[in-house]
Amino acid sequence: MAESQFPLPTIRWGIIGAGAISAAFVKDITLPREHAQARHIVSAIGTSSLEKAKSFVQDNIPSVPTPHIYSSYEGVLQDVTVDVVYIGTPHAFHKKNCLDAIAAGKHVLCEKAFAITAREAEEVFAAATAKNVYVMEAMWTRFHPLVQDLRKVLFTDKLIGDIRRTFCDFGQDHKLASLGPESRLKNLDLGAGSLLNIGIYSLTWGLLTLDERIGMEASHTEILANQSLVDGVDVATAILLRYPATGRQGILTSTSEFKNDDAFCRIEGTEGYVLLSGPYTSSPRNFSVWRNRSASNSSFDGLQQSEPVFQKGYDDVGFGLYREADAVALDLAAGRRENKIMPHAETLRIMRMLDEIRRQGGASFPQDGESSS
Q1: In angstroms, what is the C-alpha Rg of the chain?
Q2: Does 334 fall in a domain?
Q3: How far apart are CA 262 and CA 278, in angstroms?
Q4: Among 79, 70, 129, which Cα is nearest to 99's?
Q5: Taken in order 274, 140, 60, 53, is the CA torsion positive or negative?
């Protein structure tokens, strides 16, 4: 097929924060790709020092021209060559970083968890609406093609019948005992804990596999939650997500003490189940569909087949973060101010769930007591 005669939309990015996730993002969006949907240019980087910013560029952005380098975030926000600001700072800074970018008239892609509390997220979206700028939470997993294929299997083709339960775990061994109190993984002022860092992915898989709808259209859910706290930081969270209208349940967990297996999620239905696998719960690589035996005779009823009836694997260029960047570019080219896969209402729904999980589990942050400014 001939290539399109129309030029790809081009986005000039300003990067706020020079941590690991920002490094992965800029590497991904600047990789050569077949069938790319947009062209991405890293135009500016802002961090706490010029030395840190220069090192970040040298290690992660081999492209030409060299990005503008600033020893403050404000430099990025005032840079006229920046179209969209990518925010890769710790959770606790997301609200301020977003509001500052919005005030400067910049569009925003902000890492998950989008904020510390739902109240903070509401404030950001209100500001974006008033300023007419684009804002999206960077929940990159939702843009993986596996998600669309999986939801078709579950909700359109109904290959496992009526969905009844989803089990999902995300565990990473963060070796917390070896970290200092200033680490974002241990410092409550920065939003530390397994829930906002990785548990949000387990929750997301539960929502994506138990309900076809998202955002304001999503079904009502009930939550029971428990957390294990060390010095106030949740090192493990367990969530029971229940859908009263259907009786479906999600058993969704996270831990900062152990690495989970590659098979991180199991979705059970009345006629079979689906297994999801990948190096991380955030990074799916394949899924397989298993059907229950239907032989009427007997002892084999209900047991799985020896081979899946359907399976699909996915290769990737880089880490896969470019997909959310492409989505931003396509939305802006079309004049949209929010994304249909990750709309504001879905981010707010998840933030409210995270608030309730922490309320029940006991983890709290200084921001919980703050009023909207």
Answers
A1: 21
A2: no
A3: 5
A4: 129
A5: negative
For residue range 179-204, list pLDDT tens digits in order: 999 999 999 999 999 999 999 999 99
| Whole-number pLDDT of residue 298 | 40
Read off the pLDDT of residues 99-121 as tens digits, 9 standing for 90 and up. Answer: 999 999 999 999 999 999 999 99
Q: Specify whether 135 is located in the same domain as 150.
A: no
Going by C-alpha positions, the residue among 332, 283, 284, 285 that lies closest to residue 40 is 332
Task: Give the tens place of pLDDT for each residue, 318-351.
Answer: 899 999 999 999 999 999 999 999 999 999 999 9
- CA 131 to CA 102: how far, in whole Å? 7
Q: Is the pLDDT of residue 3 over 60?
A: no
Q: Where are the alpha helices (DSSP H) in the chain?
A: 20-29, 50-60, 73-78, 94-103, 118-131, 145-151, 194, 200-210, 322-333, 344-361
Which CATH number belongs to the domain containing residue 175 in this structure? Answer: 3.30.360.10
Residue type present at position 131: K
Q: Which of 121, 139, 157 is the last residue of a domain?
A: 139
* Domain carrying residue 126: 10-139
129 and 175, same domain (yes or no): no
**Which distant-in-sequence residues (6+ apart) come within 8 Å of 157 by Cβ?**
none
Q: At what angle do helices 344-361 and 118-131 cross, to 10 degrees?
A: 160
- The residue-averaged pLDDT of 32-44 equals 93
Task: Return the axis-axis angle of helices 200-210 and 344-361, rounded to nearest 10°.
Answer: 120
- Return the DSSP state at 201: H
The amino acid at residue 250 is G
Q: What is the pLDDT of residues 261-300, one digit of tens each?
A: 999 999 999 999 999 999 999 999 999 999 987 544 444 4
**What domain count does the chain have?**
2
Beta carbons of 167 and 276 less than 8 angstroms apart = no
